[in-house]
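Kindly inspect the following:
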Amino acid sequence: MKIRLPRPLLPSLLLAVLLAACTPLPPRIGAPSQWIPSPNFDARRPNLVIIHHTSDDTMAQALRTLTTPERKVSAHYLIDRKGTVLQLVDESARAWHAGKSWWGGDSDINSASIGIELDNNGSEPFADAQIDALLGVLADIRQRNNIPAANFIGHADVAPTRKDDPSPLFPWKRLAEQGFGLWCDAPWPAAPAGYDLALALTALGYDPATPEASRHAFRSHFGGDQLMRSGPIPAEDEAALAYCLLRKKAATPNP
């Protein structure tokens, strides 16, 4: 028995066949396989925000670095000293900003994060207009991606053997007051007797394979404010600071 399709449907079916023939198949494994698409998926969502300073003296230099193919480095956002925000890579794509890095057991930070570059040479204060713009970008990112407060960190935190950005001049306390990152003001409550600083740093997210570099990054991030005012955190206070931060982390609900 022949089934006759209504004539109005024929052009639509022919068009669909032709379009299907012209549409390239998505990448597949090299082994023999069939492509049977499922509708049950969505885009990957980042769970970290990594903040950088560019180390450049001008926005033009920074933009050139982040958009020149030969440099093979990029970020999702670049914010200049006046607060102008440029988006360079779509958030659903993997920008090349973290390099070899590690945080909380994840060694592919580029795939799990959004990278934000701040136009700053590393030895100057961060402009108020720039930080205001950054806070606006962070609020928007958090609202769309439900990123926990503890997961707003710096490049030095995830790559402590190679990077030191953002510098100790970066206002982490101001960000934490808005829910972006952790912070504890001194004086810190004493840690329990025998408290293990190395284990505490690992629990915060730092790489246990690079203990001294991780400790230096921890001191720069969470003690930079004190460093600028009165000098480095005394070694005997580091465990107390880490203890306080872990308590904050445990008490901070995810958005």
In short: The chain is about 40% helix and 10% strand. The radius of gyration is 24 Å.
